[in-house]
């Protein structure tokens, strides 16, 4: 089913169980080559979500601020974005160009992501595509400026969300996950993939 919330195009159950498992299998070597790390905010606080990236550019955050860069914090190049992930981008966006970043967020027990905008990309006219895998997550959507009313929706494993147009600059975050609600990841938790054109 398809749901439109404030311009967020939410495809519930877009990926069946087999497709979800293929993505997890494709991510295993990526996580081995570019291990998850805890980014720290510019203010020096460690984020509860662990992250890594695939593609020419990856998103990092440390004492020097937020940015996209060509290498993992430990120095290795980011691995390529697996083909089954690129296929989903092309299927749902219809675009000719590939994303240059697949940001991989891992939510363990208690991890969350506060309301924020994604504004480190060069051109906000490209959409962002999000793929949810594993445990359920409570996704909150706000407005293009801070404050005002928000709306929440549960994202489940296999859901795909496309943010384009004005939704691209909306505040959003993950309030909490239901740890252990899915069997997809043997150790539990949630993986969110976001496909972006960063440069
Ligand atoms: C709306 N991730 O990585 S995905 C993020 O579930 C992020 O891990 C959340 O917010 C997660 O920045 C939410 C949905 C999402 C991702 C990117 C967006 C919504 C977005 C970029 C612009 C607008
Ligand atoms: Fe975001």
UniProtKB/TrEMBL annotation:
Cellular component GO terms held in the UniProt record: cytoplasm
Protein name, as recorded: Alkylated DNA repair protein (DNA oxidative demethylase)
Segments traversing the membrane: none
Textual note on the cofactor: Binds 1 Fe(2+) ion per subunit.
Binding site for Fe cation: 116, 118, 172
Residues engaged in binding substrate: 59, 66-68, 120, 146
Cofactor entry: Fe(2+)
UniProt: 2-oxoglutarate binding residues: 105-107, 190-196
Gene Ontology BP terms: methylation; oxidative RNA demethylation
PANTHER family: ALKYLATED DNA REPAIR PROTEIN ALKB-RELATED (PTHR16557), NUCLEIC ACID DIOXYGENASE ALKBH1 (PTHR16557:SF2)
Domain Fe2OG dioxygenase positions: 98-199
InterPro entries per UniProt: Alkb, AlkB-like, AlkB-like_sf, Oxoglu/Fe-dep_dioxygenase_dom
Sorted UniProt keywords: Dioxygenase, Iron, Metal-binding, Methyltransferase, Oxidoreductase, Transferase
């Amino acid at each position: 089913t398809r749901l439109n919330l404030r311009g967020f195009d939410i495809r519930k159950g877009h990926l069946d169980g087999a497709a979800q498992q293929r993505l997890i299998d494709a991510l295993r070597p990526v996580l081995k080559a570019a291990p998850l790390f805890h980014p720290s905010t510019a203010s020096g606080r460690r984020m509860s979500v662990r992250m890594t990236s695939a593609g020419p550019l990856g998103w990092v955050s440390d004492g020097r601020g937020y940015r996209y860069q060509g290498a993992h914090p430990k120095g290795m190049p980011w691995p390529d974005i697996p083909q089954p992930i690129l296929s989903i981008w092309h299927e749902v966006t219809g675009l000719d160009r590939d994303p240059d970043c697949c940001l991989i967020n891992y939510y363990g027990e208690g991890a969350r992501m506060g309301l924020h905008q994604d504004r480190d990309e060069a051109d906000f006219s490209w959409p962002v595509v999000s793929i949810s895998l594993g445990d359920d997550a409570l996704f909150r959507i706000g407005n293009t400026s801070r404050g005002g009313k928000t709306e929440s929706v549960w994202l489940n494993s296999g859901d795909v969300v496309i943010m384009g147009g004005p939704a691209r600059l909306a505040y959003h975050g993950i309030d909490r996950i239901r740890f252990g609600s899915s069997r997809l990841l043997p150790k539990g938790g949630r993986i969110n993939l976001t496909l972006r054109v960063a440069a």
